[in-house]
Design a protein that fits this description.
Layout (H helix, E strand, L loop, with lengths): L8 E8 L4 E5 L10 E5 L7 E2 L2 E2 L1 E13 L3 H13 L9 H4 E13 L5 E2 L10 E4 L14 E7 L2 E9 H6 L2 E4 L6 H14 L3 E6 L20 E4 L8 E2 L2 E2 L15 H14 L3 H7 L11 H15 L1 E4 L2 E4 L3 E2 L6 H10 L3 E5 L5 H24 L9 E5 L3 H4 L1 H5 L4 H8 L5 E7 L7 H6 L2 E4 L5 H9 L9 H5 L5 E5 L7 E4 L3 H11 L1 H10 L5
Parallel strand pairs: 12-22, 12-23, 13-20, 13-21, 14-15, 14-20, 16-19, 21-22
Antiparallel strand pairs: 1-2, 1-9, 2-7, 3-6, 3-9, 4-5, 6-7, 7-8, 10-11, 10-25, 17-18, 23-24, 24-25
Bound molecules: adenosine-5'-triphosphate (ATP) and magnesium ion.
Length: 524
């Protein structure tokens, strides 16, 4: 067969082994690292049943040069071209020199279209072609599917993941700064809102709602938004009553055991009034059980963290924590999540510690509600709840967890039994312990240059990603590799640019637009 006749043929299988197949690339075709290709068992093979044949789905994992000429001849030709002025013209250059592709087997598509793990090799000299939409028809849209983008290089093949499975089994989003984690998150939050799953997003850059640019405010279903800053119409003021704080919420704050003990003693004695008593009451009976110094340090830390001043033995609060307002905030947020809504909390006004404390309170409430639902047999009727965490090593880091567990690490370990999942975002996955990384079943890997960080992910993935290190290093902005037990292989993903996507959706959907305007009208 004349290869030149078929525009889809990009090369021919010329050797290798089960782990790596070597392919001579056709000179006029392009092939990129990470690209998915197909080897058909047509031609000499007899495996054709009812007009269908077996297809090997493979991925380009390395590129190199191949040549029919000795290295000495190649060097000599280069010398002639560089050192002599005359242009040396090589006869049949495209036949003698070529690009070698190294492929990895992904899976086999059988006669009936069903996929299975690859167990056989295709024939030598089999043609290698570009993937067609129909080859990937097995990536099907399920009822609750979330679409995160298209297969890289194939804008007509969307990648779907079942939202129930994906979100309850935790998601890790890793990538170097500027590679597109936030853009991906905007897409993911949008899709979660569309699927009516519950989600809490702590947003330290206030970038997801889109005050002045396209954002989640434009979602036709609407999202719930809390901020301690200027409240846009339809949004809520974030105020949290001090009485809702429990000593256990401070697991995410650095405190010594002695300091924690003081907090637990005051809480045991005074219940929900413990914080005001801690600041105003010096003479409790249990005083002998702790050191005066510990009480002083706890007071100083809480004063700074909660922005409290004590005047005339009364607490004055000037931040998000309040001694009178905000008594239902945490419960309201949990209710929204249970109703399958996305709640975005603008934490840009807070310190990292304050953000974690608030996140810890909300997460503990949601987790408690889901645990109770499991006990009462109502869990299956609830949407999945996921908690989005930026800079996840702050609460899931190895050093933090040696001090003890917190609500986030508890969810990482056992949340999926209760349909509560984490979406952990980080530039430095290597700081997270391996068992927690391994529990993050779906990994969306954006470009990562540092090999240590790539290795941490590769070693903890559900699919064998050992051949993908180079591919991950070469991912551009908005490109990702997605590895998940809910996908048949690690799929190279092109993530849509959220802003353009939303602008297009708004202009396409007139009905949507009228709803959009009713959410935050003055921001449009
Ligand atoms: N899917 C995409 N398509 C096109 N451009 C993109 C895409 N993702 C990101 N970009 C470009 O890269 C820029 C940085 O993306 P983004 O803010 O999402 O990175 P990040 O990984 O969140 O960075 P940081 O770690 O600093 O938060 C965007 O402003 C946009 O210009
Ligand atoms: Mg970001």
């Amino acid at each position: 067969m004349n290869l030149n006749m078929n525009p889809h043929i990009i090369g021919q299988l010329i050797g290798g082994n089960f782990k790596e197949l070597y392919v001579r690339k056709k000179a006029s075709e392009r092939a990129k690292l990470g690209q998915i290709v197909v080897i058909d068992s047509t031609g000499d093979t007899v495996d054709i049943v009812g007009g269908n044949h077996v297809r090997w789905l493979c991925q380009v994992i390395d590129l190199g040069f191949g040549s029919q000429m000795s290295s000495q001849s190649i060097e000599l030709i280069s010398g002639l071209e560089l050192e002599e002025t005359s242009d040396y013209e090589l006869k049949d250059a495209h036949l003698r020199n070529y690009t070698l592709l190294t492929l990895q087997n992904l899976l086999t598509i059988n006669y009936d279209g069903k996929v299975s793990a690859t167990k056989e090799l295709p024939l030598l000299f089999s043609k290698v072609r570009q993937v067609k939409d129909s080859d990937l028809a097995f990536i099907k849209k399920t009822q609750n599917a979330i679409c995160l983008g298209d297969v890289q290089g194939h804008s007509s093949i969307p990648v779907y993941l079942d939202s129930n499975n994906m979100l309850s089994h935790h998601v890790l989003i890793a990538g170097t700064t500027g590679k597109g984690k936030s853009v991906l998150m905007k897409n993911l939050i949008w899709e979660t809102a569309s699927q009516k799953q519950g989600m809490i997003v702590m947003d330290p850059h206030d970038e997801y709602i889109g005050r002045t640019s396209p954002g989640l405010k434009d979602h036709p279903e609407g999202v719930v938004y809390y901020t301690a800053g200027r409240v846009p119409k339809g949004g809520n003021t974030l105020k949290i009553n001090l009485e809702l704080l429990r000593p256990s919420h401070f697991e995410v704050i650095e405190l010594s055991n002695a300091q924690r003990q003081v907090m637990y003693l005051y809480h045991k004695k005074f219940g929900k009034k413990w914080i005001s008593e801690l600041f105003t009451n010096n003479n409790i009976e249990e005083k002998s059980e702790f050191h005066e110094m510990s009480l002083a340090v706890v007071r100083r830390k809480l004063r700074l963290l909660l922005d409290i001043t004590v005047r005339n033995n009364e607490l004055e609060c000037s931040s998000v924590f309040d001694s009178s307002a905000g008594s239902t905030t945490i419960k309201d947020i949990a209710r929204h999540v249970l109703e399958g809504r996305v709640v975005i909390i603008d934490t840009s006004q807070f310190s990292g510690q304050e953000e974690l404390l608030i996140g810890s309170m909300i997460t503990a409430e949601v987790f408690g509600r889901y645990k109770a639902a499991k006990l009462s047999g109502e869990l299956d009727s609830l949407p999945v709840a996921s908690i989005v965490l930026e800079e996840a090593p702050r609460v899931l880091g190895k050093d933090v967890l040696t001090e003890g567990h917190n609500i986030f690490s508890t969810i990482a370990r056992e949340g999926r039994k209760f349909r509560v999942g984490l979406v952990a975002i980080t530039q430095l996955p290597s700081l997270i312990p391996r068992e927690i990384l391994a529990n993050m079943n779906t990994k969306i890997i954006l470009g990562i240059e540092m090999s240590q960080e790539r290795n941490a992910i590769i070693e903890s993935s559900s699919q064998d990603l050992s051949a993908y290190s180079r591919t991950i290093a070469s991912l551009d902005k908005g490109e990702a590799l997605i590895s998940s037990p809910f996908l048949p292989f690690a799929v190279p993903l092109k993530i849509p640019f959220f802003d353009e996507r939303v602008k297009r959706l708004i202009s396409e959907d007139r009905a949507g637009r009228s709803k959009v305007e009713s959410i935050f009208p003055e921001l449009d």
